[in-house]
């Protein structure tokens, strides 16, 4: 019984880690897109 419980805990932890990983990836991608847009906007405003 303990072995199944440990396996279930490992599976649950793995699922939670995968979800957190995907969330972090999406956050980073969003921040990069925002940075790119702000940078392009600054460049275009400063270009004659």
Q: In terms of topology, how is this protein built?
A:
Layout lengths: L1 H45 L2
Description:
This protein is mostly helical and 48 residues long. Helices cover 94% and strands 0% of the residues. The model has no long low-confidence stretch (mean pLDDT 94).
Summarize the structure.
The chain is an all-alpha fold and 48 residues long.
What are its keywords?
48 residues; rod-shaped; mainly alpha; 1 helix; coiled coil
- Please compute the radius of gyration using only Cα atoms: 21 Å
**What overall geometry do the principal axes of the alpha carbons give?**
rod-shaped
Encode the helix/strand succession as letters: H
Span between termini: 73 Å
Which percent range describes the beta-strand content? Answer: under 5%
Helix content: over 70%
Assembly category = single chain
Category from helices, strands and their pairing: mainly alpha
User: Uncertain spans, ≥5 residues at pLDDT below 50?
Assistant: none
Q: Mean of the pLDDT scores?
A: 94
- The strand count comes to 0
Q: Work out the helix count.
A: 1
Task: Characterize the main sheet.
Answer: none
């Amino acid at each position: 019984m303990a072995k199944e419980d440990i396996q279930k805990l490992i599976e649950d932890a793995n699922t939670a880690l995968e979800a957190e990983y995907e969330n972090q990836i999406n956050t980073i991608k969003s921040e990069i897109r925002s940075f790119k847009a702000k940078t392009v906007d600054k460049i275009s405003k400063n270009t004659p």
